[in-house]
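Researcher: Structure prediction, please.
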Amino acid sequence: MKAIPSLRPTAEELLDAAREHIVNKVIPTIADPQLRFQTLVAAHVLGVVGRELSAGTAPFKHVQSEVRALPGAPADDGALCAAIAAGAFDDEAAGAPLRQHLRMRTELALMAWNPLFVMRVKAER
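Model: Predicted structure follows.
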């Protein structure tokens, strides 16, 4: 089988280039505080999307398998929320794996939105 040459630039590289252009060339020229803030948010969103693309589907598959491994094996987040509301995780034996799962999900989300924060928190431990 013939290997397909990699397409360059990749989607992640394009997003990173757009984000760097906005941060380094556009934002310094913006005088309006509201427009500056909105542009900073847009640049941040490009970084989030790039990090999520780089991670691929593995984190999402891991979250799905972790949900199903919880006590009661909820099929999805809706079932998990219903189980929590019904008190299925109120006792310590069921609550501990739920807390661990929620920590992992929070860390995954923070790795996309604010990876420096996660690294700083882990370094403090």
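Model: The chain has a mean pLDDT of 90.
Researcher: Thanks, that helps.
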